[in-house]
Amino acid sequence: MKMRVMFASSNKKMQNYADAIGHAFGCQVSDIPPSYPADNEKLVVIGLSLKGSKVEDRVRRFCSELIPKRAKTTSLFVDGPENSEAEKEVKRILTEAGTVVIDHTLYVKCGMFSSKLSLEERQKIVDWVREVQTMAAEFT
């Protein structure tokens, strides 16, 4: 499945989660905003650090431009509280842009002191992406 991973976070551990997905699935990993826009991706996995109810402007703009020609389906992994107002806002923006949002968010904990992923954390995110790929296949 043609897939891409994008993330927006100053936390190094979020980048490590994105890199683990990229390594496991052989797909491109980019920071938001990406150097090259998504193009005809079946799935875009987006990693975000969401605190409070505000969504960063760069994330808002990127998500609003993720039209179906660029990405058929999207899914989120989030460092932050479950079902936050910011997460709901990101999902709303993605839906308005026309992409299908797979409602199977993975919530990760990224502390301030450790940026390394444990084997268990790496396995958990890879297993989650496999589940999301299965769900995305239904929409493509």
The helix/strand order is: EHEEHEHEEH
Count of folded domains: 1
Mean pLDDT: 93
CATH architecture: 3-Layer(aba) Sandwich
Q: What proportion strand? A: 15-25%
- The CATH topology is what? Rossmann fold
Query: Helical stretch count?
Result: 4
Structure in words:
It contains 4 helices and 6 strands; from the N terminus they run E-H-E-E-H-E-H-E-E-H. By secondary structure, it is an alpha/beta fold. It has one domain (3-137): Flavodoxin domain (Rossmann fold). Helix 3 (85-97) links the parallel strand 4 and strand 5. Helix 1 packs across helix 4 (119-137) and helix 2 (57-64) packs parallel to helix 3 (85-97). It starts with a strand and ends with a helix.
Topology:
Blueprint: E1 3-8, H1 12-25, E2 28-31, E3 41-49, H2 57-64, E4 71-79, H3 85-97, E5 100-101, E6 106-108, H4 119-137
Parallel strand pairs: 1-2, 1-3, 3-4, 4-5, 4-6
